[in-house]
Write the structure tokens for this entry.
Amino acid sequence: MKLIRELHDSLKEYSKLIIFCENMILYDQTKNTYSFEIKDLNLLHQNGPFLAIAASDNSYHYVVEINKDDDILGLFMDPNSINFVDLRQILGFLDQSSFLLASRASILKTWKSNNHFCSICGNNYSFNSTEGAFECSCNNAPNYPSISPCIITLIHDQDKILLGRSKFFPPNMYSTLAGFIEAGESAEEALVREVKEEVNVDVSDIRYYASQSWPFPAQLMLGYYCKYETGDIVLNDEELEDARWFKINELPIIPPDASISGQLIRSYIEGRSKP
């Protein structure tokens, strides 16, 4: 599958739609999919342009936003299994490639929705098909999709790991610590600062693990391991509801494998279990 950013005046046949309504994504629980065949939906009459975000052979994946008053569920044979859900709710049911496409769809949907007018002169943007970006004749500076770089880290101390929970998490769920990278900071500097700000501990031996696109709303998560050095946990109440040490064989509920947080935790446990 090729990643693209194109605006099409009409939807191409044999393509698929990823449909959003008020930041919720349409999801078929029975088929475990958020990607719907155009032939199954009577949407070809909708006005374009339509944002194509990926292509395979002669088919495209489009992102479509509808109004809450549109009776789209009535178009399905079995509407009981299909509904709009928060993308976070289905993380645990998606494989990595499916999550990444949904993430891309959400980020680009927001980018398209927020960029109708030039921020300098106020005129309507035009779309530069070569660059895959919006632009205005007043400055000819393409407006590309933007993402915010963040660090996310698993703090470890032999058979213990430090996890925190936000008040927005489901009950008994804990995750790794994360934060935005400030202007002028390296990722490693941001990690040390964020950990100190959130839980008041010092860390060392920072090791890169992997990265992940994260659509809440548009981040690039840079995953790291780091070793605990000194300090007692002191919570920053604005950041976390709770933080504590857990033995790796006595963990609370942790994020699913589709998230880099879940991957960091499970990979560390697997590494500790090897002889």
The chain has a mean pLDDT of 91. The first helix runs from residue 96 to 113. Helices lie at 96-113, 187-199, 260-273.
